[in-house]
Amino acid sequence: MSESILEKYGEARLPRYTSYPTAPRFSPAIASGSYGDWLEQLPANDPVSLYLHIPFCRSMCWYCGCHTTITRQDRPILDYLTVLRDEIRIVARRIPHHLPAGEVHFGGGTPTIISPVEFLSLMDLLRDCYGFSDRTRVAIEIDPRRLSPEMARTLGEAGVTRASLGVQSFDPVVQKAINRIQTQRQTADATDNLRRSGVGSINFDLIYGLPHQTVQSCIDTAKAAIAMLPDRFAVFGYAHIPSFKKHQRMIDEAALPDSAARNAQAEAIAATLAAAGYRQIGLDHFALPDDDLVKVQGAGRLRRNFQGYTTDNCETLIGFGASAIGRMKDGYVQNEVAPGLYAQHIVSGQLATAKGYRLTGEDALRAEIIERLMCDFRANVGAICRTHGVDPSELLAGNGRLKELAEDRVATIADGVVHVSLEHRFVVRAVAAAFDAYFDQSMRTHSKAA
Predict the structure, then answer these.
(1) Does residue 102 have a cis peptide bond before it, meaning omega lies within 30 degrees of 0?
(2) Are 47 and 102 in contact, with CB atoms under 8 Å apart?
(3) Exposed/middle/buried for 17, CB within 10 Å: 0-12, 13-18, 19+?
(4) How far apart are CA 175 and CA 180, in angstroms?
(5) What is the radius of gyration, based on Cα positions, of the chain?
(6) Contact call for residues 240 and 256 (beta carbons, < 8 A)
(7) What span, in angstroms and rounded, lies between the C-alpha atoms of 305 and 139?
(8) How does strand 447-448 pair with strand 13-14?
(9) Which residues contact 429 (CB under 8 A, 6 or more apart)?
(10) Which end of the chain, N or C, is less surrounded by CB atoms within 10 Å?
(11) 120-175 pLDDT tens trace
């Protein structure tokens, strides 16, 4: 990618487009009343996805952009789990049918901070409230430093099918700069224990753009990770937003790479993974050729949600826990972010919804275009518009941002199809933003485009 394109588009702060509209558009106008109505209207027999947020860690990683709380004691975790179980029951009572669970995802924080006994109890409750089958996929995010052999065995016993391990970087200089010391041995042991326990799919998360990171350290980390043979990689660019995440102020901004260096790091990781036989999935995921992500991408059915690129095709996502986001046919809802406020709602027997967004027909149209761009690097805007009963010229002809991207050869437009070149895939979010009706609002909380 040329320096001029990086200078023009790489510095822009843009959404990751794991949803559209994005979370900054959520409003308190959509609260528990709307959410309750939407739950009661869920159709029978349609599989749903479940997301459970566990907002606790034992220590703070300074790069972290998640909602989490640091605790050395178990009592806050146990108290939270009591409230979380109550929320699961409250939501289940609002749904008139016993719905099947298609996907279950535990995120954090550090979900495996839960004890094995508590995790099995939580899974039993989910099975009581939703229909599980041998097709239900259960995923969990893991800090390899905190995964005991007993917990690995418990995950296999509970039916976990995929584990996502945070690796980020194996460079000790980088690890010190982000307050996350993690050896290759810890990661390999966690991976081996999970596989021995029957967890069939392993994903590693890597990050580029961290302080003191170099192209060579990125390559070395990728090669060390490849040697452990994970099925997938997710490779993210570090989002430095210290005004929003105050612990990021511990990171030395002078040690952060510029956009050109970030792009070189991302390209180097992608080339290293490709040389090892991994296929690139969308913007930032990689998978072995026989992985389901590769199969759905080839079939044009790759999806994108709050966990990134996915095979999940459920229309409904039910979020549990503080800050958890849910998605319904009619819109989005988000729980109270602070665990204390979240608990107050649940203890009173109420849904914990703090804000949300009601989708319009135009939102659904733009969301489909943006998702296809993010997943396929192309979108047949003409065909998508026709399925929504909209004249495509309304989104194409007068689209000044799209015209500028075409003039800069970042994207091409022909017969209603927008295509992003492979050379410019790392600024695909800039092309997606050309279809974002709210582009100029709330950019403060987003990461750089490259």
Answers:
(1) no
(2) yes
(3) buried
(4) 5
(5) 21
(6) yes
(7) 14
(8) antiparallel
(9) 14, 15, 16, 17, 283, 374, 449
(10) N
(11) 999 999 999 999 999 999 999 999 999 999 999 999 999 999 999 999 999 999 99
Please give the structure tokens belonging to residue 289: 């050729």
Burial class from Cβ neighbours inside 10 Å (0-12, 13-18, 19+) for residue 3 reads: exposed
- What residues are paired with 353 via a beta bridge? 335
Q: Tens digits of per-residue pLDDT, 171-208?
A: 999 999 999 999 999 999 999 999 999 999 999 999 99
Question: What residue type is 99 in one-letter code?
Answer: L
> What are the tokens at 403?
């015209």
pLDDT at 446 over 70: no
The pair of three-digit structure tokens given for residue 66, joined into one six-digit string: 């998640």
At 243, list the tokens. 């005004």
pLDDT tens-digit map of 278-294 = 999 999 999 999 999 99
Residue 231 has pLDDT above 90, yes or no: yes
| Percentage above 90 pLDDT, the chain | 90
Cis-peptide into 144, omega within 30 deg: no
Question: How many residues would you count in the chain?
Answer: 450
Give the DSSP letter string of 292-350: HHHHHHHTT--EEETTEEE----SEEEEESTT-EEE-SSEEEEE-SSHHHHHHHHHTT-
Q: How far is CA 140 from CA 59, 100, 155, 236, in A?
A: 19, 19, 9, 18
Contacts 24+ apart (CB under 8 A), 358-366: 358/30, 358/34, 358/330, 358/331, 359/330, 359/331, 359/332, 361/388, 362/390, 362/437, 363/20, 363/21, 363/437, 364/388, 365/390, 365/395, 366/20, 366/395, 366/435, 366/436, 366/437
Percent of the chain with pLDDT over 70: 97
Q: How far apart are CA 69 and CA 87, in angstroms?
A: 20
For residue 153, how far is the Cα from the chain centroid?
A: 26
27's CB contacts (< 8 A; 6+ apart) are: 355, 356, 357
Residue 441 CA, distance from chain mean position: 21
Per-residue confidence (pLDDT) for residue 444, from 0 to 100: 47
Query: Is 53's pLDDT higher than 80?
Result: yes
Q: Name the pTM for this structure.
A: 0.94
d(CA 183, CA 203): 17
d(CA 234, CA 351): 33
Site of tokens 């665990």: 339
Cβ atoms of 430 and 1 closer than 8 Å: no
CA atoms within 13 A on the CB side of 246: 1
Higher per-residue pLDDT: 147 or 439: 147
